[in-house]
Design brief:
Keywords: Membrane, Transmembrane, Transmembrane helix. The chain crosses the membrane at residues 25-44, 65-87, 102-123. This is Stage III sporulation protein AD. Pfam families: SpoIIIAC. It is a single chain. The protein is an all-alpha fold and 129 residues long. It has a domain at 64-128. Helix content is 90%, strand content 0%. It has helices at 2-23, 25-42, 44-60, 65-90, 94-126. The longest helix has 33 residues, at 94-126. It starts with a helix and ends with a helix.
Length: 129
């Protein structure tokens, strides 16, 4: 019941944040950042298990390893961008958060280009000439 632990930590952190935001806003931002890092560390084993399963599936399917690493990079950029944007929003910097989200989307699009090209090349080979 890891989710129960996470929810418990989130509720306690939220209550502390509500108190700190009124008296010491900088400390509230720091607490929010520490909570995010704790959640990340708490879930590190789960993320490693997912990556291992994806690597095993790619090995069994004899899939090009380049595509798997690209997909993992895309997932990393998406999660990191969302995490950074949430921290910026917690600090009250919504405009910066939007720019981080925009940058993450552009980076994801660039990373996905080789996959889109490979899919289009495969489709072009299947089409009759």
């Amino acid at each position: 019941m890891e989710i129960a632990q996470i929810v418990g930590m989130a509720l306690i952190t939220t209550m502390l944040l509500m108190i700190l935001r009124q008296q010491k806003p900088v400390m509230a931002i720091m607490l929010s950042l520490v909570f995010g890092v704790m959640i990340f560390m708490f879930l590190m084993d789960k993320m490693a298990a997912i990556v291992n399963v994806m690597q095993e599936l790619a090995r069994r399917a004899e899939m090009n390893y380049f595509f798997l690493t690209t997909i993992l990079k895309i997932l990393g950029v998406a999660y990191l961008g969302e995490f950074a944007a949430a921290i910026c929003q917690d600090a009250g910097e919504h405009a910066v958060a939007k720019k981080v989200e925009f940058a993450a989307k552009i980076i994801i699009a660039v990373l996905a280009l080789p996959i889109m090209i490979a899919i289009l090349d495969s489709l072009m080979e299947l089409m009759p000439r």
